[in-house]
Structures are given as C-alpha cells and as structure tokens.
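Running co-folding for magnesium ion.
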Amino acid sequence: MILDGNGRWAERRELDRTEGHRRGEHALWDVVDGGLDLGIEWLSTFVFSTENWRRPKAEVEFLIWFNRDILLSRREEAHAKGIRIRFLGRRGRPVPKEVLDTIAETEEMTRRNRRMTLCFCFNYGGRAEIVDAVREIAADVAAGSLDPARITEQTIRRHLYFPDMPDPDLVLRSSGEQRLSNFLLWESAYSELMFPRTLWPDFRRRHLFEAIARYQQRDRRFGGITDHDNAPS
Ligand code: IPE
Ligand code: MG
C-alpha cells in the first residue's frame, strides 16, 4: 500500500500537513487489524521514500520522528497480535541513529512472529533497492565468487532488501493518484494495481475489503494464458 493523501486531507481542513500524517496512523492500524481478520500474511506500506527528503525540513523531521514514535507506542501491541515488523530501505545517514536503533530493536523483538509480516518501506526507493542489489552482486563478481554469466533474476531477488518477501499480489495507492512513485519496482512487475480515491487519513479496513473483493474478480495471467494452476507464485 502506498499511503497517499495525508497532505491534501489536512489542507482541505486548513490544518497543518503534519495533522494529516497524524490522522494517517489511525488509518494504518485499522487496515492492519482488517488484514489480520482476513488472514493477510504480508502487508507492506510505503511510509517514507528516498525522494521525500526533498520536502520542507520541518515536514521531513516530523515524518522521521513520527515513524519512530509509532514504533515505540505500537510495537508491544503489534507483537502481542503476532505481527513481525520489518523495515525495507537504506539504513544509514541521514536517518538518525536513534531511529535506526529503534528499527533494529523492533525487528528483533518481533522476528519470530508469523501471523502477519508488516513491512515499512522507509527511506525506501525501488531504484535504490536495485542499485544496492547491483552493488552487492558486482562485489561478488569483483571478488571472483560469481560468474556474470550465471546472474539470473533469482540472483537479483536474493540481494533485495528482504529476499523472503513474496511479490505483492496487489499494489494499492490511496488518494486516486495513479503512479507507483518508486515503490517495490522489481517486486511489482506482475502486481494488480488499484487506486482508490479515498485520502489515506479516511482509509479504513472496509476500503481494503472492497479492494480485495475487486482483486478477486481480476484474471491474473503472468504473461501466459488463463491457467491458474500454473501461475508462478
Ligand atoms: C502521504 O501523504 C504520506 C507520505 C508519503 C509520507 P502525502 O504527504 O504525500 O499527501 P499529499 O500527496 O500531499 O496529499
Ligand atoms: Mg503524496
């Protein structure tokens, strides 16, 4: 899910944009609970992109620390519900050390949970993820441990931020904007796309249920013809 529309939600109410982000937190946990009820095992949310650093400094600061506050205030509850929390993205400067530490602690605390894996794409960019994978692969080639002729799609997948994560079946972006904006570029090659118009702070589990009902009507062919038994996972 690409959580979008927080700023517009606030601007329409003549509130500060940060108020939209604050309201978005309630939407997130409502959708997570709805996902748990449905048995969704993987849910990834785009909360801060490598491009979001271009926003005004005050908004950037707010978002970085707000994401940390959310972890601190919600991780016990998420852990009790059987949620494994993971972060996908670049883990280094300019993300403050305290934030990186909280991320690492939260991942460690929840790492054995399997009811749902909730991924936060934070300081994440799909192109950056591919660049980082290519760097690691190039290092293996330079070290002589990998023959370039043996590089396959699986090689790249193994070097993504979270190789165990399955490709998303559905990519959903709130607020009606019809773009991927650098979200899970490699992974979303065959994802179904949906762009509900609801702004993120107004998003609730019923919007997720509606999207999944529509998803169930779609015919996924993965470049082949309709044969559901042979679709790649
Ligand atoms: C999404 O809402 C939140 C983040 C990407 C951090 P926006 O802040 O992009 O909201 P709009 O697009 O300005 O309405
Ligand atoms: Mg936006």
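Result summary
The mean pLDDT is 96.
The first strand starts at residue 42 and ends at 49.
Job closed.
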